[in-house]
Specification:
Layout lengths: L2 E23 L9 E10 L6 E4 L5 E7 L3 E14 L12 H9 L19 H11 L6 H15 L1 E2 L10 H7 L1 E2 L1 H14 L4 E8 L11 E10 L3 E6 L4 E2 L4 E7 L8 E6 L4 E10 L5 E3 L3 E5 L13 E2 L5 H4 L2
Parallel strand pairs: 6-7
Antiparallel strand pairs: 1-4, 1-5, 1-13, 1-14, 2-5, 3-4, 8-9, 8-12, 9-10, 10-11, 13-17, 14-15, 14-16
Length: 322
């Protein structure tokens, strides 16, 4: 039962005073029999009241307004989380046909419907052919999911900076490159096309000294639903099963359902965003991500006084998903 301490620090610095910053945060880890939050300290500039609710996907979401004029907004989240290893599904080859029958029966059942909807894009026929090549009646859904995960790992190059959180599937497919969120989006698409329900997962990989991609930072992976087992975490960025060194923050259909911070405010649009994640080992050692800074230029506007709300386009994971 490893325990991890995670600090997630988000800071906005504005070029001039702003006000009425309204924000939506998903910084509350999910809790189940495999993940227990022992402590959570959340501090926000101006000490605003944070109202919380559970969204459609089971995520705890916070909502707050910082009304006073300010030039900085910092959201400091510190967690202590205990994780428990999940027994892996047996790699049984007996009766795979029956397992596929059970999989196909999920297409009209809640809550699996949303996790079976796949997107259309220009290169879809090419991907359909590849997915079809992985579908064989004598191979179980479990083995099929592993094969799809391995395909993404082998065929896509891990390159930071070539995509953003707004990059569409077609561009990711053409580039055959990106970071963990792109790998997760492609794998989720493949699994859904194979009739296997797939969740997009946002969270952290806690350091275990293996030097895997995304270790000690925020990360994205996929959960596939398997008959007679449940949800299995698959990390296509590292071609492995997500287990006790992974801490889940949120789940959804895609990144858009899991963004840790997004919001609007009144004031000039130019600002700087800094994000830092610090993850401590259970033995007291720690690994720190370097602060990531992005400068945003002003948007053209006829009313520079800022009397209307402007959307904050820096979705957090663009900086964090390493």
């Amino acid at each position: 039962m490893p325990e991890f301490n995670i600090k997630h620090i988000t800071k906005y610095t504005y070029e001039a005073l702003v006000r009425d910053s309204v924000n939506h945060i998903i910084l509350y880890p999910l809790q189940d029999e495999h993940q227990q939050v022992l402590k959570h300290d959340l501090r926000i500039s101006g000490n605003p009241k944070v109202d919380t609710f559970i969204d459609y996907y089971g995520n705890q979401v916070g909502f707050f307004t910082y009304s006073e004029r300010h030039k900085e907004l910092e959201i400091y989240s510190e967690l202590t989380v205990a994780t428990f290893a999940k027994e892996l599904p047996p790699d049984e080859t007996a009766y795979p046909e029956q397992q596929w029958i059970e999989i196909k029966e999920l297409r009209f059942q809640v809550p699996y419907i949303d996790y079976l909807k796949w997107e259309t894009f220009d290169s879809l026929p090419e991907l359909q052919e590849i997915v079809g090549g992985h579908l064989k009646p004598d191979i179980t859904p479990y083995r099929t999911a592993l094969n799809c995960c391995n395909f993404v790992y082998e065929k896509f190059n891990y390159i930071q900076g070539v995509t953003t959180v707004q990059t569409q599937l077609n561009e990711i497919w053409q580039l055959k490159a990106g970071v963990c969120q792109d790998f997760a989006h492609i794998l989720a698409q493949m699994l859904r096309m194979a009739d296997i329900p797939a969740k997009y997962v946002s969270g952290y990989i806690c350091p275990n000294k293996n030097g895997i991609r995304g270790e000690g930072a925020t990360h994205a992976w996929v959960e596939a639903y398997l008959p007679s087992y449940g949800w299995l975490g698959l990390d296509p960025t590292n071609n492995c099963i997500a287990n006790e060194t992974y801490v889940k923050l949120a789940v959804g259909r895609s990144f858009n359902d899991c963004s840790p911070v997004k919001g609007v405010y009144k004031g000039p649009s130019k600002h700087e965003l800094t994000v830092q994640v610090i993850v401590s080992y259970d033995n007291g050692l720690s690994e720190t991500t370097k602060p990531v800074v992005q400068q945003k230029e002003p948007e053209p506007t006829a009313d520079f006084q800022g009397n209307s709300y402007r959307r904050n386009l820096e979705l957090m994971q663009q900086q964090q998903q390493q």
